[in-house]
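Changelog note: in this version the structure field was regenerated for every chain. One regenerated record is shown below for reference.
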Amino acid sequence: MDTRLAANFHAPPASLQAIPYIMLIVFVPAYEAVFVPAVRRLTGVGTGITPLQRIGVGLFAVTFSMVAAALVEARRRHSSVSGDGRTLSIFWIAPQFLVFGLSEMFTAVGLIEFFYKQSLSGMQAFLTSMTYCSYSFGFYLSSVLVSLVNRVTSRNGGNGWLSNNDLDKDRLDLFYWLLAALSILNFFNFLFWSRWYSNSVETVQVAGVGGDGGSEQEDEKGSA
């Protein structure tokens, strides 16, 4: 891909990974200042949408990041293999990072908000740290997934999707489509468990056992 920004300046490909973090810096304040007040008038929820809804939006949005990556990689590979002489600009892959940053804003912040509001008193910091532990576990699983995909796709003597370390020979686009499918499955899995959790909380509240979270339980004890 063409990494030139000017005649004598090339953008390091790794620098594009800064885009999601730039998105967080820009859009988190905008989210709190614009989105939350506007949606609060419609939903009546103090934070605009609930933490679970915020997480769900992020998990759904990340699917489009994988779809964008698959489409761009398919176009890049076609141009390179066919030898048509066209070289895509490196900024074609910027949209997938933009969408990923948007999904991270909803998911990561939503998780922290959920743990602080719904967990028992004294467990907020521990559960928040588990969020970051899940990231490291996900990085490990990504390595397992790559090895598994290579093993399955290299059966019958064929080359695996990611076994050649050559983007023109590998099928990175198909791998991105697989990740998009897994993202959709993960989203529906989240919907199932979040619905189960919401129903469980409603049952507990009707029974008069407790409130929404540890902090609210402490408030009830103090007022008693």
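Spot check on this record: The chain has one domain: 4-136+171-223. Confidence is low (pLDDT under 50) at residues 209-224.
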